[in-house]
Amino acid sequence: MTESSPIIGMPCRMDPGTDIQYLSRQYMDAIQAAGGIPVIVPLLENPQAIREIAKRLDGVLLTGSSSDVNPQRYGVARESGCGPIQPLRDETDFVLLDVVFKHKKPLLGICFGMQSLNVFLGGSLIQDIATSIQTNILHDNAASEGRPSHEVEIAPSSVLGKLAGGTRSMVNSTHHQAVNRIGSGLEPIAKAPDGVIEAVSGNFRDHFILAVQWHPEKCYSYDAFSRSIFDHFVARCQGDGSR
Questions:
Q1: Are 84 and 67 in contact (CB under 8 A)?
Q2: Scanning 33, 49, 101, 219, which has its CA 20 to 30 A from the CA of 58?
Q3: Which residues pair with 60 in a beta bridge?
Q4: Quick one: which H or E segment has residue 32?
Q5: DSSP states along 39-73
Q6: What is the rounded distance in angstroms from the CA atom of residue 78 to the CA atom of residue 216?
Q7: pLDDT per position in the chain (243 positions), as tens?
Q8: Residue 188: CA atoms inside 13 Å, Cβ hemisphere, count?
Q9: Burial of 134 (0-12, 13-18, 19+ CB in 10 A)
Q10: Using CA atoms, how far apart are residues 38 and 61, in angstroms rounded to an integer?
């Protein structure tokens, strides 16, 4: 890292019903290994404080969460399969995203981060994959962690296609929700064999937006594809933020 290394903010996790904020060091280690400076963004009641933090960042990584986005944010009733919500995390993500789009800051979304991005842009979510679609794939595979769980098919001309060096890759999988209606300006660029959307990119001029449903931070140290995602994101944060 150097004095010009980009500063990248990442929102905390906060389990519903608790008051402890935390974040896995895997996110920080992956950003630092790629040449960035990781900064943890606290979940605050004051949105203006979050906004001021975000303005000072060179990029934002929206992290995973143990909560689900409040279905009210995409205008539907809560289904029985929907998990608990954490209003502070929802609000923090939305404030960060507002700054990201107003100032064209590069964005990488991971798992919950991909879902909150989609909802922020007017999209909706499958509230529980297992009870909503017929599939032989276990998307909420707790045993997966950083290990491959299922295959994804990647659009060859997409940024992920270039980073993967092909159209197929094995990924880990620990999510029970997924993108349903695509948010405005987003394009699906990877899908699981059952059709579940596994990655999106943004169609915004001179603005890098990428989000994946799996957790590349859990395997960046030994998986070249995961490492390339962080390397590319940090490079965009250090540059002009364009695709």
A1: yes
A2: 219
A3: 9, 107
A4: helix 25-33
A5: EEEP--S-HHHHHHHHHT-SEEEE---SS---GGG
A6: 29
A7: 666 899 999 999 999 999 999 999 999 999 999 999 999 999 999 999 999 999 999 999 999 999 999 999 999 999 999 999 999 999 999 999 999 999 999 999 999 999 999 999 999 999 999 999 999 999 999 888 889 999 999 999 999 999 999 999 999 999 999 999 999 999 999 999 999 999 999 999 999 999 999 999 999 999 999 999 999 999 999 984 444
A8: 17
A9: exposed
A10: 9
* Residues 68/127, Cβ–Cβ less than 8 Å: yes
Report the SS3 class of residue 176. Answer: coil
Q: What tokens were used for 101? A: 């789009």
Distance CA 178, CA 198 (A): 8
Q: Which residue type, as a one-letter code, is found at position 73?
A: R
Using only C-alpha atoms, the chain has a radius of gyration, in whole angstroms, of: 16
Tokens encoding 74: 């995409």
Is 30 within 8 Å of 217 (Cβ atoms)?
Answer: yes
Single out the residue of 108, 63, 113, 64 nearest to residue 233, CA to CA: 108
Angle at which helix 224-238 crosses helix 25-33, to 10 degrees, equals 70
The single residue listed with the structure tokens 């790629």 is 34
Domains of the chain in sequence order: 7-238 (3.40.50.880)
Collapse the DSSP code of 130 into the 3-class scheme (helix H, G, I; strand E, B; otherwise coil) and give the result.
helix
Helix (H/G/I), strand (E/B), else coil: 115: helix
The H or E element containing residue 107 is: strand 107-110
